[in-house]
Design a protein that fits this description.
The complex is a heterodimer. Chain A is mostly helical. In chain A, 75% of the residues lie in helices and 1% in strands. In chain A, helix 6 (140-157) packs antiparallel against helix 7, helix 10 (233-248) runs antiparallel to helix 11 and helix 11 packs parallel to helix 15. The relative contact order of chain A is 0.05. In chain B, 22% of the residues lie in helices and 40% in strands. Classes of the chains: A mainly alpha, B alpha+beta.
Chain lengths: 432, 194
């Protein structure tokens, strides 16, 4: 029984290549003309917007929006405040009205560009209202409302570009909130799940990656100690492991799983470097507020939830191991068994250096099993992070320095050679 | 989704949501300007620049920093001694809403005289949030700390300040204590005509 499969979308460049190559295959007798036609009909480029034109249009819209912002920023006094407000409201209405008209005429690319412009003008409007009414106030709120409006627009017009913008704005909002003082930003607990839901509806991996990193940022700020101004490091390690764990709850080859995995590994990579330096532990607060304990524990639960899924690659075990190390470290500190001092600093440095090395080696091994280049990249980056930080501790000793660099270089060459051999064997296997 | 699958309708809805948020901001923040009582306060400005909103004068008033009456802390030029009407100095935390009662001074400007956790009956209450508590000292944010103006005018205002001319802020205070800046006065002349 033959079933009509939906055509797969490929870029115009790939389609053009396939068209030329398949003609050669027909000429060489590898393929007959009817098979070629069937293969080509499997792919579709017609409905794809022309990416280059789309990118240029979006940049143009972005520049126009910034231009409007600067003109507004000039604050021409001859324009009465009411007229300024009317101008911005009208421009937002016109942009979305234009988008609706374009969508009605089936011009989806133009509709999306106009909706994107509408959200930018909406953001401008927030700053203009603040200017007209002389509001300095709590400026991160402007980013929050900008993100909320963008997210609603992304969901309604099903635009990935607006959705990615909303995810970036959510990150900017968290960073700007942190510029005041570290605290638990409660509205994030509502915004973030909504944003993740929109990302799933739009099937946007980039949105998931950005939202994953934003969640880690939120956890870092929510668990930071105001007096010491440093994030509760174990919570951020657990955040990375939790994001990876969420990825493991998906089908292995799904794009969304990759989005979560990459944001989790990215988070862990960013936090692991300072954790390998013993000086950090001199300033770790021992008396954590209840909010820090709750958030860290919840994050640990999500991270360790991955144990319910059978590990498929060594990297899965390594991330579970990292979560156990971070959770145990937190528990020991909270129970008062770890006190600031030489032992605390040294033991913590050794533990997290071990985590970096373990994750690095595990993901390099995983790459050979999963065939994912991202696993190899992260494996190498974790390994390099470990070596670079440890190198700085022996940098004054030229002999040790030189030996460490030789070992690193040799290791990287070995990995590169193995990867190349694996690539060749895969190609030979496919050809046979 | 059940409400509509039509993308054009959804685009209109997206625009309506954005306009609703903007309108909410406008109404919420302009309410004291429409309904409030207009008073003037003396201000001490400095002139930074805002990346998104252009040139503005940052303003400090006598209510920006409150000191408990009778405290021995050195009082800077922008602060005021106030009488606590309740346990405001003891219970204030970062972000706590406080009310500062204003009274007209001999020069016509309004000055803080007391502070409380609840608005005082029959008084002009200025609503603010504590920036950080400091025992007998309390910096408070009222949302009255910036006045935006046309690019280039900031320097002229700065020059006027350097010449020690009388700079006042005209504000509207709603019955809820919410306040907004109406205009900035230099020697009694509104800054847009300055």
């Amino acid at each position: 029984m033959s079933e009509q499969l939906p055509s797969r979308k490929v870029s115009r460049h790939t389609f053009d290549w396939l068209e030329v190559e398949s003609r050669c295959w027909v000429e060489r007798g590898v393929l007959d003309e009817s098979a070629r036609t069937r293969i080509l009909s499997e792919y579709d480029t017609e409905s794809l917007p022309h990416r280059g034109t789309m990118a240029l249009t979006l940049i143009a819209v972005l520049m126009c929006a910034i231009g409007i912002l600067l003109v507004i920023g000039y604050n021409w006094e001859r324009i009465p405040p009411a007229v300024k407000v009317a101008m911005i409201l009208t421009s937002v209405a016109a942009a979305f009205g234009g988008a609706a008209a374009a969508y009605a005429r089936k011009r989806h690319t133009l509709g999306e560009v106009l909706a994107f412009a509408g959200t930018l003008l909406f953001g401008n409007g927030i700053w203009l209202v603040a200017q007209v009414l002389h509001i300095q106030g709590h400026f991160p709120d402007a980013f929050l409302w900008f993100a909320v409006g963008s997210l609603v627009a992304a969901f309604l017009v099903e635009s990935v570009a607006i959705g990615v913008g909303a995810a970036i704005l959510a990150g900017v909002w968290i960073i700007s909130e942190a510029s005041f003082y570290p605290h638990v930003i409660y509205p994030f607990l509502v915004l973030w799940p909504c944003a993740v839901w929109v990302a799933y509806r739009l099937r946007s991996v980039l949105m998931i990656r950005l939202l994953g990193l934003t969640a880690s940022l939120w956890i870092g700020i929510a668990t930071a100690n105001e007096a010491h101004m440093d994030a509760w490091p174990a919570a951020v390690v657990l955040a990375g492991c939790a994001l990876y764990a969420i990825g493991r709850w998906h089908e292995d080859d799904s794009d969304m799983a990759d989005g979560w995995r990459v944001s989790g590994l990215g988070t862990l990579l960013l936090i692991i470097m300072p954790l390998m330096v013993s000086g950090l532990y001199d300033d770790i607060a021992q008396d954590s507020p209840i909010s820090t304990i709750v958030i860290t524990s919840m994050t640990a639960l999500v991270a360790i939830s991955a144990i319910a899924r059978s590990a498929r690659i060594p990297g899965d075990w390594a991330m579970l191991g990292a979560a156990f190390v971070a959770a145990s470290w937190s528990a020991l500190v909270w129970m008062g068994l770890f006190k600031p001092g030489w032992w605390f600093g040294t033991a913590s440095t050794v533990a997290f250096s071990g985590v970096s090395l373990m994750v690095g080696v595990a993901f390099i091994r995983s790459a050979f099993r999963s065939n994912r280049t991202s696993d190899l990249v992260f494996g190498v980056l974790f390994g390099l992070a470990f070596l670079v930080v440890r190198w700085t501790s022996v940098i004054e000793n030229l002999l040790w320095s030189g030996l460490l660099l030789l070992v690193t270089g040799g290791g990287l060459l070995f990995v590169a050679r193995q990867w190349l051999r694996r690539d060749r064997s895969v190609l030979v296997g496919r050809a046979s | 989704m059940t409400f509509t699958n039509s993308i054009p309708k959804r685009a209109v809805l997206a625009g309506a949501t954005c306009l609703l948020i903007l309108s909410g901001m406008i109404v919420g923040h302009a309410w004291p300007l429409w309904t409030g009582r207009v008073i003037t306060m003396k201000v001490v400005p400095v002139d930074p620049r805002d990346l998104f909103r252009g040139e503005y004068v940052r303003l400090d008033t006598a209510a920006s920093q409150l000191y408990r009456e009778g405290s021995k802390m050195p009082q800077p030029s922008t602060g005021s001694l106030v009488r606590p009407l309740d346990r405001v100095f003891e219970e204030a935390r970062r972000g706590t809403v406080v009310y500062v009662q204003l009274a007209q001074s001999g020069g016509g400007d309004y000055m803080p005289v007391s502070a409380s956790l609840e608005p005082a009956e029959g008084a002009i209450n200025l609503r603010g949030r504590v920036r950080y508590p400091g025992g007998s000292f309390m910096p408070v944010d009222y949302g009255l700390d910036a006045f935006y103006m046309q690019e280039g005018k900031g320097r002229r205002v700065e020059e006027a300040i350097r010449q020690r001319r009388n700079v006042q802020m005209q504000i509207a205070v709603a019955s809820s204590g919410q306040s907004r800046i109406k205009t900035l006065l230099i020697d009694g002349v509104p800054v847009d005509r300055f």
